[in-house]
Each structure stands twice: as C-alpha cells, then as structure tokens.
Please model this.
Amino acid sequence: MKSDNSLHGISRRGLISGLVLLPALSGLSLSAIAQTQTTQDGSLGSWNEGPAKQAIIDFVRSATDQANSKFVPPEQRIATFDQDGTLWVEHPIYSQVVYCLDRVPPLVEQNPKLKDVEPFKTILSGNREAIAKLSLHDLEKVLVATLTGISVDEFDAEVKKWLTTAKDGRWKRPYTDLVYQPMIEVMQYLRGNGFKTYIVTGGGQDFVRVYSEHVYGIPPEQVVGTAAGTKFGYQKDGTPFLTKEPKLLLNDDNAGKPEGIHLMIGRRPRAAFGNSDGDREMLEYTGAGDGARLMMLVLHDDAQREYAYGPAQGLPETKVGAFSQALFDEAKEKSWTIVSMKNDWKRVFAFVEKR
Amino acid sequence: MKSDNSLHGISRRGLISGLVLLPALSGLSLSAIAQTQTTQDGSLGSWNEGPAKQAIIDFVRSATDQANSKFVPPEQRIATFDQDGTLWVEHPIYSQVVYCLDRVPPLVEQNPKLKDVEPFKTILSGNREAIAKLSLHDLEKVLVATLTGISVDEFDAEVKKWLTTAKDGRWKRPYTDLVYQPMIEVMQYLRGNGFKTYIVTGGGQDFVRVYSEHVYGIPPEQVVGTAAGTKFGYQKDGTPFLTKEPKLLLNDDNAGKPEGIHLMIGRRPRAAFGNSDGDREMLEYTGAGDGARLMMLVLHDDAQREYAYGPAQGLPETKVGAFSQALFDEAKEKSWTIVSMKNDWKRVFAFVEKR
Model:
C-alpha cells in the first residue's frame, strides 16, 4: 500500500507542477526550466527572490553547463566560505574568544599562581567592562594559555564539551545553533552541483574542525583556518601524540586567506563568500581567473533579526568583522554580489519561523 | 552488434566465474566470497599472493564491514602515502632535485652573474662527480633559487613543461612513468572502498601537486608536502597573484609528517605507507589508535627490476630513502607489514610486461 501510494503521489505531483509551469514555458530554454524547478523545490528556500539569489543560481548554471563557455570542470569546483559573520553570528564577540575566556577559570585552578597575574586576574573578576578593554597583547596571552600546551586530542575533547554547555547571551542557545540557514542552503546547493565546500576562516583551524562536519557538513580536512604548529612526541608508554605549540604557521586573514588557500587547497576557488575587509584578498584572488566566478559579501544590515554593523553604508562600527565603505565600493565596481541580510534572507536561523 | 556481444560476454563470464567458485563456497562466509571475487577481478592484480597482499585485503575487509569490531566509519577512512620510494622511483636521485638542477641553466641565462658563483658554477660544468659532492648547504641555495621568487602559476607551468621533456637515465622514460603499478592498485582499491587517499611527502608540495591528479588520481588538495610560504601581491594592472617565498612552513619529513597530517588533514590516518626512516613517525602515529589500521613499508630489495638499497637487511646504503635495520625491527615488533618488491610484486611498472 505504502509503495503504491507514494508512487501515485509522485506521479500526481509531477503532473501538477507540469501544469503550473506550462504558461511559463514559452521562450525559456531547457536549462531555465530546470532552474525554475530547482528554485521551486526549495534548495534555496530561505532566500527571497532577488539579485543575490539569482547570482547564485546563474553562477551554478554557467559552471555546470558543458555547453557554456564558462563551464567549470568538476575537479575545479572549489567554493570557500569565511565563517565568523558569514556562516554564523560573530557579534558582539567571536565565539572562540568566549571559549578562551571560559577556559580561564579551570586553567587557573590547575595553576593557581595565575590568579594574581594579568590578564587572568581581570578575566576572573567577571567585570565585563574591564574585560572588553583588554589589549590585543593581553588577549594574545589568553589565546596562548588556553589554546596551546595541550595535546590535540585533549583540545578536541575540551571544545566538544564546551559546545554542549555554552550559550549565546541573546538567543540563549548553543553557538552552533546560530548558523545562517540561507548559507547552509548555498553550501548544500553547491555540493549538490559537484562543488567541494571549504571554510577559510580567521578563526582557529583546530577549533572550527571540531564541529564543522556536524554543523556545516564540511569535514575537518576542508577547514582552513589560523593555524599554530604542533609538536610530535611520545608519552611515557611510547604512544605518540601531538602537542599544540604557540608557534603561528598561518594567520588566515586578509592576505593570509589566499596564501592559506594555496597552502591547504592548492587551487584557486571558483566561488568565495565573506563579510568583512578580512575577506577582501580572498575574493580578489577568486575573481582573478576565467570561467564562471562568484564573489559574495554578506552585509549585516538586520538589527532586528541579527545585528546591523559596518561601517559600510553608515552602519555602526564594531569590534568584529568591519565591512568598510571601501570594500562596499570595490564590490560594486567589480560586480561582486552584496547580500543584504534584511532583504535577501527570508529567515536567518533554522530555529526562527518563517515570516 | 557491439552492445549484444558485450551483454552476452558479461553473462557468460558471470556464469563461468560462478561455476569456478562453487567448490570453494562451503564453509566460507559471504564476505570471504566477496573478497575472493575482489582478488579474482584483478583489483590487486600486480601483487603476488602472500602476507602483504593479504594484509591489505584483511584491513579493507575489517574497515568496511559494519559487523566487524574494527569497522571504520566512511568519513574516517584516510590513507596516507609517502611518495619518493613508496609510489615512484627515488634512486639514484630524487626527481625534484633533477628538476632543480635542470632549472639552473635558464636561471643563469636570466641572471648571468650567477655563472661564476658556486654552486651554480659547478652545476653548469656538468661534472657529475663534483655535483654529487655538493653540500646540503649548496643544495639549499639551488632549491631556493629554483623553487622560489616566482609566481605559483609560473612555477606550475615550468614543472608541467619539464615533466614532458625530462627523462630518467636508466629507463629513458618520463619520471611520471616510473610509478609503482602495485601501489597505484592499492590506492584505487582503497578509494573503491571509500578511502580518501593522500600523498604525504618530504618532497615539495607545489611540485607534486602539478602531476598528482594525472598520475595517482590524487587531487592537489590531497597532497601534503614540504611547503614554503607564499606572498600575496598585485601586478601593475591590479591582478592579484601569489609569489613563492623562501620561508619554510612545513618540513614534511620525520616528525614533520604527523605534524603536517594534523595541519592539512586534521584526522589520524587509518592506513599509512612509507619506505624509509622519514616515514617512521607517520606510521607510529597512524598505528596509535583503535579500529582497523594498516602500516606498510616498501623494502627496495629488487636490484634487477628496480633498485636494492637499505641498509636494512644488509642492503647497500645510499643517499636516498634510508630504510634502517632499526626501522625494520620496529616494524616486525609492531606487526607492520614489510612489502618486498622482489617477492610481493608481480611487476613494478605499468610499462613492463608481466613475468
């Protein structure tokens, strides 16, 4: 019975959608019909109709159509995504920085001497204003203390544990819930069309790799991030292990993004997605080649559903992900696509009902 | 006609192999039958029956059988291969070093001052004995001069050009012909069973990436090698490009191999293949985990079909890929598999007829 029913259902659906499409068919090419179907089946269902959604669809159509002069052979289908502010919320503070701050109390418990040493003393005080005023140099001390000196397996376990308990202050949800549903759909849509999707983040490579597969469907080996070295050694019983070292190998931001892409991927991407001046060089590098190309920048202009910050387009400046007017102008000049969170996204998160 | 013929052929082959197998079926589990078929259909056709071939088959069987306690989930199926001496000939001199030496004359033409500067002067002399005596420090100068200071695209084009013209002295064939057919089959067999295959080489990452896809079926992004940094910049017309810098990021040999694996892959491999003391740490790291594991070392003991060198097992010591007796003993103690080129391989190269 079930089998009969579902077969019948498919057949009826097929018929109905065929009838609905009929009036639109005249003058459309076959690939346009296929595209209309893709849109209708909801693969980009959280996107409003508009130039941003259309740019994604047009790019995929050119890249995958062998008859198109911009066709991209399957092995060259590489798409890179910045993470903070492009795939998940970065405001008011990067989640990884929260992780590092949260690691300070257990660290001091292990090493009580740190209790009276700055910047650990200030962090332990819980005084948010004072913490916000910590210098970059102080922050670096915290990063080194909390991200290095332990084995890669211990670090992995710590981050996993933290992700299950830590919650964002505004939505009271795990940070991994705060991913942008429209971007998840773009990644799925690209993968469905033969693209390998990569994260290329200024955040810590080891940190993002812990949850990338679960949250984004991107395996650890497709996460490129700021990376410190490790040191191979042996435990007393002879078991080999790797310790995270305070030695920066790749600062994966700004010019470091194309450099990191060359180091870790070795191919120029065909599509790149960012949201800040730190992504500029990655988008420029992606754009400097022939064939189909897609360069997109997410503009945080939605204070109600997420945040609004810039200073591009007169949005207020913040400590995270500056999107300057200069980058906005460069994007316009080079025909990159600006994604307005407010106008282009039907919804921001999976957990929010559609409007 | 063609279509009818081939359909008929398949059907007859299926029938015949079924009849041949019948007497062997009693007492064999279904997976054993499947395995017998795998062996018969030639997926490891250049391997002689023996413990090495059996170890590969047993490993894949455990890793892919969900009922097996050593089952490996598909996303964790990572296999890493050293290149020089494991996948292709490294004796008497690494191919990449030949490339660098071959690049010296055009380099001097561009910069005539180098003509009287060592070690370029000696290399230009063509005196093989003198060239062989160059110090490591001299060699480093040649590597820096020939591998850095050019754009990654120029380097890619140079290597491609060289590969079509350069020939090995003994076989008078392009270096990319000198790959070991049995290892190509292992890589294909692993990929056919859901493994991602990686090269993890002490050689230059950018060098190997030029031909890895064509020669091994391994895309550039799955090549981990000794890597120097690049520098992002702009041409006069504003086009962004990357220049290869003389700044070592990863020395992918010895302890650098597991460190490079963590940096570039972020997972511990389930299988690792090497042929020298430089692969020891990679094999140890691969072996230090639960579930199905395979660690293999290729022993060059076939002076007739390839080369015989060691000094493990009393084989003569050479400048390339030392396989020490200590490593041989460690392999025995840890039940790693030693592959004897002489005994385990039916043939070494694709271009040599089967014996």
Notes: The first helix of chain A runs from residue 2 to 21.
